[in-house]
Amino acid sequence: MTSSSSSPVHKIEDYSPNLWSTSKVHLRFDLDPHLTVVRADYEVKLNGESIGPLFLNGENLEFLSLRLNGTIADPSEYEISELGLVVFHPPGANFHLTIENRICPSKNTSLEGLYKSGSMLCTQNEPEGFRKIVYSIDRPDNMMRFFVTISGDPNLFPVMLSNGNFITERNLPDGKKEVDWEDPFPKPTYLFALVAGELVETNDEFITKSAKKVTLKIFVEKGNENKVNFAFDSLKKAMKWDEDTFGLEYDLDLFMIVAVEDFNMGAMENKGLNLFNAKLVLADKKSATDETFESIMAVIGHEYFHNWTGNRVTLRNWFNLTLKEGLTVFRDQWFTEDMTDPDVKRIKDILFLKEHQFPEDQGPMSHPIVPKSYTEMNNFYTVTVYEKGAEVIRLVSEILGRENFKKGLIDYLTRYDGQGVTFEEFISSMERAFGKPIPLLSNWYHRSGTPKIQVKDHFDETTKEWVFTISDRDSDALPLIFVNSYAAFGSDGKILSEGKRIQEGKVDEIRLCGYGPSYAKPILSLFRGLSSPVSLESTMPIEEIQILAENEPDGVSRFFNFQNLIFSWMDDLIQNGKSERFSIIIDTLRSCFKKDWDKTYFSFFLSFPSLSQISEQLQCYDYLKLETYRKDAIKTISAQFSKEFQYLYEENRKTIPIQTKEEIGKRRLKNTSLYYLLHDPTSKFEGLAIAQQREAKHMSEEISALRYLIEIESKAKENVVTLFYDHWKHDALVLDSWFAAQVGFGENKSKILETLELHPKFNLKNPNKVRSLYFSYARNPLSFHDKTGIGYQIIAERIKRLNGINPQVAAGLAKLFSAASKQKGDLPNIAKRELEEIQNLPNLSKDLREVTEKIVNSL
Ligand code: TRP
Ligand code: ZN
Which residues line ligand 1 at a C-beta cut-off of 6 Å? Predict the structure, then answer.
């Protein structure tokens, strides 16, 4: 483990090109789970004017030897530290450097570098894992051609993979096998991958638009080979979509995916050899929910799209991470919009942004999409860099229009092919396609926080116009460019006018004619579809919101206006202890039951906002009170529309276990109806849920019934939990959801957490298990923010255990303490005490140091 004292802060203004680069490397691996020998043979060349010391990154490596131009270097010629190796006087502007070191994959629980997962060895190098494999210039602006030889025991490693093209394999006299791989495209170290193990290979193919055949392979551990069909279909759809939308074709003859059980995040775009968290590849109708299927398609798309946005054109430095991630998330969102339902997809993305990114941007971890500094880059794979980054790209596409945006992207990919660039190059391509500068756009990359937009109106007597003043409230912050898609409505719900305004800077004025004999004020729907990532401070009277919730033809805006109705009622209730506004919600819902909406859309409309959505929206952290109000509302809706929900349930009861829009919609609507029915005061519908779980043909049916029965504390709870376990104890991925369901909702889940972590299927070293148990608990506000502080104590204790195992995951868990400063009573103090104890750990990782420091400062 790297000790915290030696880890520097990296500042964006300190970036400078490296003095040296390595343009070519031959890597040799002698695989052994306990002691792998790695040798790198680099072609080194000088970038600068005059020769100076050469620094190679290296962490936790056992140095063996160093050769300069083939000659063993004398120990006086170099120095090894915790962070790497310096060659004091390199032998010329061009030379060969050969270095050899040893590593121990089986002891590498950080899951970064070369590590063991199940029976396989695999790598994770983004952002800075390669330095845990071999001494190297481990920075994204250093691009190399990779030639790779892997040698190992064919019984342990019948399959040995790396990036690019397979060249040859041979059997060695000592019984080992050796394979050669070569990647024709230069790439930075973070895109290097190696996988070796006893893997089952599954195959498919794709013919590109220029009639090239691409072989597709998915490698899985034995037993999972029939769970890959959906992933193959998703991959082929993604390949086709990138051709159809941007004209982008795949550039190698082989594309491989490996499913890995122990994985820190979702998936990784290594050139030609994507590595995936098993839960984002493996699926069949019995074990995967509709949400899982959709995530698989999105993430397969995302990683595939990185082949152009990320790999062919890569990053100059890690500050620009959003250049590949924001852009690629935008591309995968667009892909899913095209493959499913654009309104529903947009609703999901906005909900996610509001629930996760907005709070991150208000809390101690807030940062611009291009962070100004970092200690541990792993801490910056955030919803801000990814999701807000994608919103900024969406904004660009709104300014340019989608056709010009496509031109801009092609310009970017052609002009900067093979280079590591920054967001400025991206903007310049977009400006070329636009034909003029895009003012203030770059400020989106530097300003943190969600812009708060205020709307004021007055009537101009002389022109008989209503003047709406739209202003960015933070007058000190950098000025921005906004796209404001708007529509004006009359009180009859008819559209009077609509359009798209580009706001440059702090203020915009929309002038609209008053309508009718009295020049009535139009009702404005602003930032429709969240045309800019802002938070709108609405002071609209509830009757006007109702008009929008019932009449907005834009499905996304209609949905969010309905949510606003609910928030407006809840806010009134919190302020005054009572509210007359609920009947408006009921009226609006009543009108919805008569509409002929798409089933998935309708189910979203009917779903009552979650506790965390409500608390974030209203900035109210009295969770117990909010939950009481929320449950009362759900019960009232359940009673009011009992007939309708029963009807909907019956109508959608029988579904076919396939992934079509119709069947997915039916399952969702049926589950939403069931959820309301279960809140009927008589408990008479519990039998329905129990039967649904028993008879389920699709995981979406089975797990929802289980979750709801747990949430309502049904008498059958213990039984259904056991039943589910007995059914699925052989499937690790399904068990993740089983663990999560038991701690993810409701109060007092600490006992059950302590029981479950002793369960034989729980494993502290497996991030999926840690996420399903600890993260689910810590994202359950009723338990985590329990006023006694027990939630904080429990999670802090688990963070300490994880610190020595997996710093990246430990720091991710610690980030959830960001919400502590907003809590009442003693909670902020308790959080502070717990975090300070973590800071006193003798081997505190830099990951945790950076995160805890920021949060403690907010407490
Ligand atoms: N680049 C990956 C993506 O597609 C994310 C990533 C960064 C990652 N670090 C990782 C994935 C570590 C797995 C493990 O977004
Ligand atoms: Zn990505």
Answer: 124, 126, 263-265, 267-269, 302-303, 325, 381
